[in-house]
Specification:
365 residues, mainly alpha, two-stranded antiparallel ribbon
Length: 365
């Protein structure tokens, strides 16, 4: 006699969407941002004991109040610039997590030029040397792991991470060499080779980042090299079959990333007028998230960069105004992480859909 068993179907299963209309995709993104904004304000009010209206007020004044507008735009620009640097590599599926180190060696090259050439050559010539040195140093730092990846298929994630630590220690070595004995300082300040201000020290860098953003958009979307990056990212075998030199594409793409990192290093040194091992501040890792969420589209990166800077600065202002000291540094990071979680989640629902299964029992013998 056959044994009968009840088999219950799963509650739901996941299916890949064919193509979602653009307005539906943005509707999902908008809903995710609205939901996470309400949650963040709620958590903030509970943590700080502020009213929702005061929390919103401080959120905006932390970004745009009291002359903060230009500072906010500058911070967005720097994060956007580093995101533009990592975007081509990640689009090619070269996992470059060494942007911090690549920017930092650019800063170091600038500082070396200012330290040893300042006052010995005309100021305009010094600025040119600092720019070229920054770009060259960053390119070299980016190409080293690219060469080993192309030649020996090494793990670029570990390689670029290692290069970050080497860059940090190089900066520490030069700082210790330049500091006076017994000094407790951790940064080196200088006044030679600084860019002219256009009313504000941030205006010229913002203009430069705007130009780089437009150029990167056209480079990735409309040039042959941008097309090759996309093909290599989709399938290395397809790229080889179509006649592309994959090794050349890898090295060339990291040269582009290095150039943009060099520009970022040059801007940081010129605006801040100092060399410090923490001056990049982990933006290379944040830039990966910015580029990934924007799906490597430079225009969308502007919005994701704005969202990250806006939430971070706004939450810091809320902590300050509320007089919160315990957890004042960690809480803004928690809120930013929550925002990331919802944005990444909405991208999942844009790519996939949940199909609810009817509760049926099947008889199995």
């Amino acid at each position: 006699m056959a044994n009968e068993k009840s088999i219950r179907e799963p509650l739901f299963h996941i299916a890949k969407r064919t193509e979602l209309e653009w307005w539906k995709a943005w509707l999902i993104r908008g809903a995710a941002i609205l939901i996470v904004s309400i949650l963040c304000i709620g958590f903030t009010c509970v943590f700080t004991k502020l009213s929702p209206f005061k929390a919103l007020k401080y959120l905006f004044t932390g970004n745009f109040g009291g002359g903060m507008f230009i500072d906010t735009i500058y911070n967005i620009a720097i994060l956007l610039l580093i995101s533009l640097a990592v975007a081509p590599a990640f689009k090619m599926k070269f996992w470059n997590i060494g942007a911090d180190g690549q920017v930092l060696v650019g800063c170091l090259a600038c500082a070396i030029c200012s330290q040893y050439m300042g006052g010995k050559v005309p100021e305009i010539l010094l600025i040119i040397f600092m720019f070229l040195a920054s770009v060259l140093a960053s390119v070299v730092w980016a190409v080293i792991p690219a060469f080993f990846k192309a030649k020996f298929n090494t793990n670029e994630t570990l390689f670029t991470l290692m290069m970050n630590y080497i860059a940090t220690n190089l900066v520490m070595f030069f700082l210790e060499s330049w500091m006076k004995k017994g000094s407790t300082g951790s940064k080196w300040e200088f006044r030679n080779g600084l860019l002219p201000e256009l009313g504000n020290a941030y205006v010229l860098p913002i203009i430069v980042v705007s130009i780089v953003t437009v150029l990167m958009y056209f480079y990735l979307k409309y040039t042959k090299q941008g097309y090759e990056i996309a093909v290599v990212g989709e399938s290395v075998n397809t790229a080889r079959y179509s006649g592309m030199n994959v090794k050349k594409v890898i090295i060339r793409t990291l040269i582009v990333s290095g150039i943009v990192c060099g520009i970022a290093g040059f801007i940081l040194v010129n605006v801040e007028g100092k060399l410090d091992k923490t001056m990049v501040g982990g933006m290379g890792f944040t830039a990966i998230i910015v580029a990934w969420l924007a799906r490597f589209n430079p225009i969308y990166m502007i919005m994701t960069s704005f969202l990250i800077i806006f939430s971070g600065q706004g939450m810091s202002e809320i902590m300050t105004k509320a007089g919160v000291t315990s957890g004042s540094q960690a809480f803004p990071d928690i809120i930013t992480g929550l925002i990331f979680f919802f944005i990444i989640g909405c991208e999942f629902f844009i790519q996939y859909r949940l199909i609810i299964c009817k509760h049926k029992k099947k008889e199995a013998e």
